[in-house]
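Dear support,

Our group has been running a series of protein-ligand predictions, and this particular one with adenosine-5'-triphosphate is the one our PI (initials K.S.) wants archived with full inputs and outputs. We had some confusion internally about which version of the output was final, so please treat the block below as the authoritative record. The input we submitted was:
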Amino acid sequence: MKLFVSEGNPHCLKVLAALELTAVKCDVQYVNHEDKVVQFLSHPALPAVLLPNGQQLFSANAICRYLFEVSGQNCNDHCNQWLEWEVTVLQPALLRALRTAVLQGKGSDVSQILQSPLNFLDQSLLKGSKPYLTGEAVSVADVVLWATLHPILSDSSFTIGEHPSVKAWFDQVAAVHSCQSAVQKVLQGKGLQAMKSYMQRQPAPPNSQCRDAQPCNNNPAESEERQHSVSEEECEEAALTWSKGLSSCPATDKQHPILPQEGKRNVLVTSALPYVNNVPHLGNIIGCVLSADVFSRYGRLRGWNMLFVCGTDEYGTATENKAREEGLTPQQICDKYHAVHSSIYSWFQIDFDFFGRTTTEKQTEIAQNIFWRLHEHGYLVEDTVEQLRCENCQRFLADRFVEGTCPHCSYPEARGDQCDKCGRLINAVELRDPQCKVCRQTPVIRSSKHLFLDLPKLESQLEQWLEKSTSTGDWTTNAKQITHSWIRDGLKPRCITRDLHWGTPVPHPDFKEKVFYVWFDAPIGYLSITANYTNEWEKWWKNPQQVELYNFMAKDNVPFHSVVFPCSLLGAQDNYTLVNHLVATEYLNYEDTKFSKSRGIGVFGDMAKDTGIPSDVWRFYLLYVRPEGQDSAFSWADMAMKNNSELLNNLGNFINRAGMFVTKFFEGCVPVMELQREDKELLAVVGWELQQYIQLMDKVKIRDALKHILNISRHGNQYIQVNQPWKKIKGEESERLRAGTVTGVAVNIACLLSVMLSPYMPLVSQTIRDQLNAPQSCIYTMLQGGGTFVCSLSAGHRIGTVSPLFQKLEAEQIEALKKRFGGQQAPLQSTSSTPAAAPVAAIKVAAVEGGHSEKAEQLAKALAEQGDKVRALKAQKAEKDVIAAEVSKLLELKTQLAVAEGKNPEPTSKKGKKK
Ligand SMILES: Nc1ncnc2c1ncn2[C@@H]1O[C@H](COP(=O)(O)OP(=O)(O)OP(=O)(O)O)[C@@H](O)[C@H]1O
Ligand SMILES: N[C@@H](CCS)C(=O)O
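Confirmed final output from the archive:
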């Protein structure tokens, strides 16, 4: 193993300290800052490590973590959180502080820049009341954070305020011999001055790195910083790139069927298949389809050969139950809700190459084939299992239709498959006080013979594959952690059959009455959906040599995609394409509670369009708060604020002004541009933001990449503000020329923004290009390689008609929407506990808010539907309790309608009351 470091590089400090502390055997080689150790990167990255297997790591934190892991000290969740915080919050702030201190000699600004992260660290240490960040001993988190803070905290010339807990912790870590030795090696006793040459070579820090705690703004100090920090060479390089203009554009139209191509990057994208039994909410949308859509759109712009497939997950008890509730057959439910999902995704502009479904012949064919192969290779075992059966409903209860007290954490509303509170998987028979979710009766335990996938027998194959996939691919941290914890806890055989009717039939003669468990079946849906798209589906799914597979999902789906499904495919031994990049979001909450289809909490896909807010704005906000790294929340007030500040005042304002200047001052034609130093600097800064965007998008950091788009328009606004073309146009010749240059540069930045926005806001992006009459090839050119910001609208280019892109969201409008869609979730949780409650609950919210005619109309409609449902159930002679539950909802709706119409509600008859 060989470690490459450079003197004066602050990132090398942590790595050298970690190396010495862990005593891992490794050669250390000192190189120059510009030496390109990792050949395939466009920029030199140091430190870097060459691993014994020939692979390279080039993120300082990844190297530290690796060293600790090799020495047997694994990074736990707490430790990972600190590393994540260091990368996203502390390090950017520190680099900014170092720039101001080392390059501009403005030590007095350091305190202000670091105040917020230091306060946070101080509070956390105080609360943790442990000597080190994660416990009693120095961990990788301590080394990494200490090293980052070292240049500033060890220099007594900075006054950074009182942070007693930070100070005590820092001094302890600094006293560790390995840390002292690393300082000596990297800084050579020269303190901050040792870093000067390294800092001078770094690009200007992005404004995105000011987090919420340090809001980004157009403050002149930052502009001044930018002027100081872009080197002469960078300016000239940016100007040269710019002058190259557009390259010719290859044909970009999709030709179906899309198949892998020799010599291309062939990327297969899937998003978790949404359950068909209900209407998806915003959490479902950002968790899978929207994230996958943005990445697929981006990949296409990069010229990769992409196929994006998805579809509805249609089998299982959830569908059977929904059918029962609505008085339809399961197939009718699937047809109805498949159409609902399709129309919602189409409104959200999800650009699937194919949106299929799992209830198809191909599904049966492929699932049964995988089953037989597993059987032949000895990976299936038989066992008798105890299951819960509801004698009242006369059926075995699928896990999701049992509720009870969690055997691990005693949460009283745990589901039969998983506890929403502690997240542990549960075997339904282990639940304390179980209840059937439909009729609320206590189920009994019954035995039945089932087939199991022998995960323990596949474990070593799985681990080998996982090691390769997780080290070469882009797995999100949560995906790696969840998978790791499954393996650590030991794999157990997993039941793949169920006593149900609505599912893919198990072809084995001894199990004729059974169907496959939905989680065995569902991921096979990716294959069968592709097979319904093209007969040549195996070119994607049995071609790991040529294809890279990205799976998008929310965190709860991870183990099925990283352990269970890969085991099915490995055991089937048919050269299947396994996931290379597993991208899992955390959860999006609704205001301060959890979205839930079954409890009717939150905004649902079909309601979003009724708000009058354009689909692109919804996409923008959901992506802005995408739960990357941690749970996040949808909030109406925040959505309005982001719309008004980021879209309207920042992005829209800049693009509109740039276009209007061309229209008003230059008769619609892009003026001549004579670049001065200031313009070239801006080109360099914008180019840098573009490169960051590309690096992040390549790593599927969709939310973080979006911030760089907004940074560019902020730079643009500031540039216009400083140069005032509207005044200069009235001046003498040289001033008019200057107005022209500024306008020309600005309108070209607007064009670049339209390209970068395209995956996020496809309609707005196209509108901007239409307004600018931009050539199609601009998209292709600017996302080439590491990103090239070129002049795409040259002097003389005639633009189209410019008009505003965004509208203000007014406070009253948002207040009304907030009320309409769920200001009163809390009581709903307790009143609507059956899986059928969603539409009723949503309407109930509307009714509680007071009766205007729209609500009354909604209620009347729901009442009519509910009446139909009850009649259908009675005609089918459904179970008494099921009918009673539906009658109870009917009566409740009647009451709500009366309230909404301003009438006195009739007293509810006792007979119809919910149990
Ligand atoms: N809040 C959320 N944020 C992100 N993804 C989510 C969220 N809720 C659900 N998902 C994803 O969508 C998938 C489908 O969700 P599911 O149908 O279980 O919705 P739910 O709201 O959790 O339903 P229920 O409340 O009925 O259990 C989940 O498996 C998960 O991957
Ligand atoms: N229907 C599942 C995903 C299957 S891939 C879910 O929505 O959680």
